């Protein structure tokens, strides 16, 4: 029995880092893919990384980056998250633990992906929208996740304070990952990419802790 871990992704501001840590986040994600509205400049990673408290995992998120870009970020990261079409060999060539994001497109053979990415510490399962590598704010059919995948599952995609307890009850993931669901809202209700809302952060973490306290995980690292 263990608590469901919490990763908050898309951190761009020091105050959001402190708010997320205060809420009990276990890991914080920095998007190092320039195509995202949540991307940070590589030069800013050092400063933001220094704001993260001890024992909180700093995760760098890459989408088909070149090896030199990943290497340059390594001093400021604890864990690498590969969110594109990276091969297992590419993911494994850096001197850091890594996880692989899989977007749950129709026809994806999860068992085969588990075998292919055997060196990953966990698999992050995310929604699939063509042309958008991540951060879609959309859920996928959680019933597609087998009970025992043989790897820790990080559930992502459209999680919010309102649905995360249900997601944990259905999937019993090792961890949950959220970005848009804890962002501040613009006037029309759309998430403001890269700007976290402290109240949403608190609500999200509260619901995870409440829901996950008695969850039994099929696979732990
Ligand atoms: O967040 C992004 O903008 C992003 C862009 C490209 C690849 C991955 C990205 N995010 C990765 C994450 O780990 C997100 O937290 C995950 O996709 C879930 O996002 P959301 O549905 O907004 O909670």
Briefly summarize what is shown.
By secondary structure, the protein is an alpha/beta fold. The protein has a single domain, classed as Aldolase class I (TIM Barrel, Alpha-Beta Barrel).
The percentage of residues in β strands lies in 15-25%
Which ions and ligands are bound to the chains?
Answer: ligand LARABZUK
| Secondary structure: helix percent | 25-40%
CATH architecture name:
Alpha-Beta Barrel
Alpha-carbon distance between the termini?
13 Å
What form results from the Cα inertia axes?
globular
Order of helices and strands: EHEHEHEHEHEEHEEEH
Structure class: alpha/beta
Average pLDDT, rounded to a whole number, is 94
Runs with pLDDT <50, length 5+?
216-221
Pathway: Amino-acid biosynthesis; L-tryptophan biosynthesis; L-tryptophan from chorismate: step 3/5
Family: Belongs to the TrpF family.
EC number: 5.3.1.24
Enzyme class: isomerase
Question: Care to describe what's here?
Answer:
With 221 residues, the chain is α/β, with parallel strands linked by helices. The protein has a single domain (5-212), classed as TIM Barrel, CATH 3.20.20. It has seven helices and ten strands. The strands form two sheets. It has an eight-stranded parallel barrel. Helix 1 (14-23) runs parallel beside helix 7 and helix 6 (164-171) runs parallel beside helix 7. The chain is globular, with a radius of gyration of 16 Å. The site of the ligand O=C(O)c1ccccc1NCC(=O)[C@H](O)[C@H](O)COP(=O)(O)O has 25 residues, from strand 2 and strand 8. Ligand LARABZUK binds next to strand 2 and strand 8. It catalyses: N-(5-phospho-beta-D-ribosyl)anthranilate = 1-(2-carboxyphenylamino)-1-deoxy-D-ribulose 5-phosphate.
